[in-house]
Amino acid sequence: MVGAATSRRSFLAGAAGLFATVTLPAASADNSKPARQITLTAGKGRASLVGKAHPATDVWCYDGAIPGPLIRARQGEPIRIVVENNLGEDTTVHWHGVRLPIAMDGVPGISQPPIAPGQRFTYEFTPPDAGTFWYHPHADNLQQLGRGMAGALIVDEPEPVAVDRDVLWMLTDWRLTAEAQIASGFGNVMDAAMSGRVGNTVTLNGVVPKEERVRAGERIRLRLVNSSLARIMALRFEDHRPLIMAIDGQPCDPHEPDRGRLLLGPAMRIDLLLDMQGKPGRRYRVIDDFYDGLAYWVTKLAYDDKPPLRAHSPDPPPALPRNPVPEPDVTMAQRHELRLQGGMMGGGGMMGMGGMSDMSHAAWAINGSSMTGDGHAGMAPLLTLQLGRSYVLTLRNDTAWWHPMHLHGHSFRVLSRNGRPVPHQQWADTVLVPPKQAFDIAFVADNPGDWMLHCHVTDHQVSGMMGVLRIA
Ligand code: C2O
Ligand code: CU
């Protein structure tokens, strides 16, 4: 796992030597700089993703590392992140899931000018919510995210949560060639109109995992992040009973996943409480069986031989402390429907562009409108919402494909699925909408600005399943 601020500072010094197109200020090498003020350098690098038997992979990354450095902040305390762009093309950083001011949201042309090569931009905000978040570019998304640019942002609760270990698993899917290089063909028509660029290699914290060392009896808070371009995961922990404590950073009623399967679409996060109730010396697989007939094991929980850390598992934990997300007034809320449209129909090979106009390069649309690429400042918003008012949006998927729909700048309650209340009505920032189904989400439009709403299957996003909600 990537270390916190201290270890990444030495990494930064190394990266500066490799990509010295911009001279770093002397302060960057100073270990005494407070962790809440950091520098993040976007650039190119090499990473050993698949192990020593294979060549290292050419990647695009932050601070020379895959994943990017883990940024650890504290709830309610300001952080300041200077992003340097050594990439050779425009970039930005989006702090996925953090309810921050629009000027810090990282959407080029809409919330800020892009960071040109050789330039820097300072992101400054105070995370209002504790939880598991992540960061990634919002420019040339397919390539920048698909070539490796992503990292986790963990915001700690003021009072530590009682666990033995706090562990992060960033799960990332890659499409690699036999030489362990990133395959070309980003944005091809097949990926764009179907499931997106699903790859062939899944890494955990930047390497193809073999096993994760655990000890019998310990209680782990396991933070799962799916930073893949397109791969949806459904994880099962063999002979274990994980408890879902938070979704997309927001605490929920602690509950076991439906049929023991944790659905984790691109950009989604789940915090688990995992009591290690296996036997010393044994191994248990973590299986992803989302795609029919393509189940594989992601990693194994490898118990060491030591006797259990404690005789009985500790009491069931209380829920994590709630974050200050405003509760929408569902009865008074204004309602809107957003229809997700387009894509190739399953098997038929026909573009099902119901309701779409003549946007030849757009494969997808929301209510007939397609914002493509990195987005455009001039386009009319999908909806204009009134500041302070509650809204219920129905996200109706008219397509044959799954869409993890993400709203910037807000957390919303997931109210119902196909008109029926969902069991926990959890807060989320990304909701995975299966084909031909509909979810109702509710939130207070309390954050002024032009906020992106898009599918986080990046191929879908950049080919039209994106729009803006204006809160004025
Ligand atoms: Cu994580 Cu607009 O995205
Ligand atoms: Cu999609």
> Measured on Cα atoms, how large is the radius of gyration?
21 Å
Total count of helical runs of at least 4 residues: 4
Main sheet?
Answer: 7 strands, mixed
Distance from N terminus to C terminus (CA atoms, Å) equals 42 Å
- Helical residue percent band: under 10%
Number of strands: 33
Q: What general outline do the C-alpha atoms trace?
A: globular
What class, by secondary structure content?
Answer: mainly beta
User: What molecules are bound to this protein?
Assistant: CU-O-CU linkage, copper (II) ion
Low-confidence stretches: 1-33, 346-360
Mean pLDDT: 89
Proportion of beta-strand residues: 35-45%
Would you kindly provide a written description of the structure presented here, covering whatever features stand out?
There is one protein chain. With 472 residues, the protein is mainly beta. Helices cover 6% and strands 39% of the residues. It has four helices and 33 strands. It starts with a helix and ends with a strand.
What's a concise summary of this model?
This protein has 472 residues and is mainly β.
Topology (SSEs and partners):
Layout: H1 5-18, E1 37-47, E2 57-62, E3 68-74, E4 79-85, E5 94-96, E6 120-125, E7 131-136, H2 141-146, E8 151-156, E9 165-174, H3 189-193, E10 201-204, E11 212-214, E12 219-226, E13 233-237, E14 243-247, E15 250-255, E16 262-264, E17 269-275, E18 283-288, E19 296-303, E20 334-342, E21 364-366, E22 371-372, E23 383-385, E24 390-397, E25 403-407, E26 412-417, E27 420-421, E28 427-428, E29 430-433, E30 438-444, E31 449-455, H4 458-462, E32 463-464, E33 466-471
Parallel strand pairs: 1-4, 3-8, 9-12, 11-19, 20-24, 23-33
Antiparallel strand pairs: 1-2, 4-6, 5-7, 7-8, 9-10, 12-17, 13-16, 13-18, 14-15, 14-17, 18-19, 20-21, 22-32, 24-30, 25-29, 25-31, 26-27, 26-28, 26-30, 31-33
Bound molecules: CU-O-CU linkage and copper (II) ion.
The site of copper (II) ion (CU) has 5 residues, from loops.
